[in-house]
Amino acid sequence: GTSSVITVTGAALNDSVLIGLTGAWGAPSSSGIITGTVTAANTVTLNFKNASTSALDLTSALYNINVLSNP
Asked: How many of the other CB atoms lie within 10 Å of CB of 11?
């Protein structure tokens, strides 16, 4: 898999990360899994896994990342 680290101001450890995707990663037969975890204050790590045999173009989609604060 591939990972990417992004800054999300206000994100805290144990917060939940929701990820929305607009667009496509590649051919209709391609599929992938994306997860997000708050790994440090203000830091979210996104993990991508290709779940198909087709190539994925991770830059061809628009990502909407929301962090939900957990008490």
From this structure: 22
Q: E strands of 2-71, at which residues?
A: 2-7, 16-23, 32-40, 43-50, 61-68
DSSP conformational letter for 71: -
Measured CA to CA, the distance from residue 44 to residue 71 in angstroms comes to: 18
Beta-carbon count within 10 A of 23 CB: 10
- Note the pTM of the prediction, 2 decimals: 0.83
- What tens digit of pLDDT does each residue of 40-59 get? 999 999 999 988 888 888 88
Residues 35-66 as b or e (16 or more Cβ within 10 Å = b): ebebeeeeebebebebeeeeebeeeebeeeee
Q: Which of 33, 34, 35, 42 is nearest to 69 (CA)?
A: 42
